[in-house]
Amino acid sequence: MTEQTEHLVRLIGARLAQPGTAPAPARAHAGWQQSLARGIPGIALLHIELAATGRAPWQHAHDWLTAAAAAPLTVGADSHPFHGGPALAHALACATEQQPGAYHRALHALDEQIIIDTERRLAAAHHRIDQRQLPEIAEYDVIRGLTGYGAYLLRRHPDTDTLHGVLDYLVRLTRPITHDGEKLPGWWTLSGPSGRPDPHFAGGHANAGVAHGIAGPLSLLALAKLKGVEVYGQHNAMGDISWWLDRWATPRGRGPAWPYWITRDELRARRPAPAGPSRPSWCYGAAGQARAQQLASLARKDDVRQFRAETALLNALTDSARLAATTDISLCHGYAGLAHLTARAASDALPDTRDQLKALIPGLLDAVVPPDTTAVAQVADALLQTADGNGAGFLDGAAGVALAVLAADTGQAVTRWDACLLTA
């Protein structure tokens, strides 16, 4: 591990050593207490990883977990995988795997509630499909929906009927649905990408990303298969999703460029609208989509498609125009996330692409970690001092950056903190 990366990780950890030392804008944010993306549960993930790797005392992790549980947790209909009880459960799961017996009672109670909530959501989703209605993004996505619940259950309760129920639902979600006389993908939503009505998306859209689109379910279906969990139709569903993504891809260099989404006008025209280069990232873009396609290819034992996915990732990470569209260093959509995803992809890659992917990681890390100590401190300061309240958090802030560069530089995530992202 490089000295500069180690310094950045330890510096961020020290600046966030206690909940009270976090920047005031972060602590004032509405999601501070219960948000995995922006608040205490996400920052706890960093301290659990630091403790598990011997870089910090377990007391720091315990303090953050205690702070997350200090106020009444949101559970039930108002919670979701990145907010409330499920968000804390993910952090506790990371901790208890390293500290057997710790937090067992709290985690057991949260697990029971998560299963109840998942079953309730499944019943509502199947009723919606039975009524031939279109879904909302929050029904199925990684952040708020059943794919996110499935990611948690795959980690904690892979043998449960509830996880099988989630996989059955995702298989059903991939089947086309006829709405107002028009045949649409089963995950088509009438909203815009934000989940709200949007005049720019008249007639809705089919989302292709990992965070809010069909690449998230593809990742879960693939990871479940790779871990020995399978339901009827799962193999074909992965193939159908991969085919759909490739149907809408446009050639770019040595590999395809998958769209962020497909609008109603594009669907009717049967081709995507011309677009400039877009940033590769986890949430939307080639990095997350390539990893999803790679995992599906591994699950389906399809070396040809796996090579195509890995080549697409290589192309995206060497395309100067697409890299220029990447304007920050966050885990969600910046260079730290690219470094982490590249390391994950390289660990599973075919021999012809493995070394090429590994060779890109130092350059991606250089975009995050400066070469001298003073500049490293400036990076940490810039992250933590943002005024929007995201600067300390997991998806867009310092905690996520530290976790991502640590995993990319060392080649491992000891506590599997990225299970909630379905990257592995």
What is the general shape? globular
What's the pLDDT, averaged over the residues?
A: 95
Task: Tally the helices.
Answer: 19
Number of strands: 6
Strand content: under 5%
Structural class label: mainly alpha
* Rg from alpha-carbon coordinates: 20 Å
Alpha carbon gap, first and last residue? 21 Å
Strand order of the largest sheet: 1-2
Low-confidence stretches: none
Percent range of helical residues: 40-55%
Order of helices and strands: HHHHHHHHHEEEHHEEEHHHHHHHH
Largest sheet: 2 strands, antiparallel
Describe the 3D structure:
- Helix content is 55%, strand content 4%.
- It has 424 residues and is mainly alpha-helical.
- The strands form 3 sheets. It has a two-stranded antiparallel ribbon. A two-stranded antiparallel sheet has the order 3-6. It has a two-stranded antiparallel sheet with strand order 4-5.
Give the helix/strand layout.
Layout: H1 3-15, H2 24-28, H3 40-52, H4 58-68, H5 85-98, H6 104-130, H7 137-140, H8 146-156, H9 161-173, E1 177-179, E2 182-184, E3 205-207, H10 215-226, H11 234-247, E4 250-252, E5 255-257, E6 261-263, H12 264-269, H13 286-300, H14 303-317, H15 320-324, H16 335-348, H17 351-366, H18 373-384, H19 398-410
Antiparallel strand pairs: 1-2, 3-6, 4-5
Helix pairs in contact: 1-18, 1-19, 3-4, 3-5, 3-19, 5-6, 6-8, 6-9, 8-9, 8-10, 9-11, 10-11, 10-13, 11-13, 13-14, 13-16, 14-17, 16-17, 16-19
